[in-house]
Design a protein that fits this description.
With about 300 residues, this protein is an alpha/beta fold. The chain has 9 helices and 14 strands. The longest helix is centred in the middle third of the chain and has 16 residues.
Length: about 300
């Protein structure tokens, strides 16, 4: 790990006791001050990877280093330096918004002025006296983000921060996170929202069926569309799985053109969901970058 790298995931595989391979040979990195996005369809293994980065889960193979240490073996250190926002909007039914916020501030030695600053920025200050059970699902999600920001730390990890949040609050959230970015905060964001990724992220890892299928350093590639080439002995058998793009068949090659990357990811996930687990070769082509994934959905 270099001096500037805050997170390094090196050839990580995670297999659950039931034999499910959630992550397969995953490698990625995040540097100081960088906002890194992990995107992909539901069930791609993104949350499992995040749980290994924060030390909740231990990799079956490979290594994870956060600020140079093993997060599983150094939980106290990680908790001091990392703030984590989970995917699901947890609730505190019997506690007020302000009570929970102040409690987190006290635990992390955060000045109370920061509590008001964050709650106002996310438009939660006016509902600070509400109990958890009185909050909408979107407000609960915003509260989770507020708690992560109040906790502070050198690295912010957000698992789908704007899921369940309406479009107006999404833009508000993006502006808050952009301000954190301007302050130099390192962030890892799990998302499948194209606009969110384009606005916030410096580097994007695309995850499909537990694997990193590509890395995007140019966010223009996200909005310009993508061409997917699937090499398979009987491509006609796969046509019905590609519902979102323009499909063409050539001998042992299936070519699908999409206007957005997320549409391609959703169709590619259908290969695994529908049991297409024989060796195939998938190529994702952009105007200026090509990613080749050998045996992406090989039998596991």
């Amino acid at each position: 790990m270099s001096v500037r790298e805050v997170v390094e995931v090196d050839h990580v595989t995670k297999m659950y006791p039931n034999g499910v391979m959630a992550n397969i040979d995953v490698s990625l990195s995040a540097c100081s001050g960088e906002v890194v996005c992990i995107m992909g369809p539901n069930g791609a293994g993104k949350t499992t990877l995040i749980r290994q980065i924060i030390g909740i889960l231990k990799p079956t193979k490979g290594t994870v280093r956060v600020f140079g240490v093993d997060p599983v073996k150094n939980q106290d250190y990680i908790k001091k330096r990392v703030a984590y926002m989970p995917q699901l909007p947890l609730t505190y039914p019997a506690h007020k918004v302000i009570e929970v916020s102040k409690y987190v501030a006290e635990l992390s030695n955060t000045p109370l002025e920061r509590v008001r600053e964050v709650l106002e920025a996310l438009e939660l200050w006016d509902i600070k006296e509400r109990l958890g059970y009185q909050l909408s699902i979107g407000q609960r999600k915003l509260l989770l983000l507020a708690l992560a920001l109040i906790k502070g730390g050198d690295l912010l990890i957000l698992d789908e921060p704007t899921t369940f949040v309406d479009i107006f609050k999404k833009r508000l959230t993006w502006n808050v996170l952009l301000e954190e970015k301007r302050k130099g905060r390192s962030m890892i964001i799990v998302s499948h929202d194209i606009e969110e990724v384009r606005r916030l992220c410096d580097k994007v890892y695309v995850m499909i069926a537990g694997r990193i299928a590509g890395k995007l350093d140019s966010l223009d590639s996200i909005s310009r569309g993508v061409e997917v080439k699937v090499y398979y002995e009987k491509p006609a058998e796969l046509v019905h799985l590609f519902k979102r793009g323009n499909v063409k068949i050539y001998d042992e090659l299936l070519v699908v053109e999409y206007t957005q990357l997320i549409e391609a990811l959703e169709d590619l996930e259908n290969l695994a969901v529908n049991g297409i687990n024989r060796d195939i070769r998938v190529v994702l082509e952009y105007p200026s970058v090509e990613y080749i994934v050998e045996s992406l959905f090989s039998k596991r």
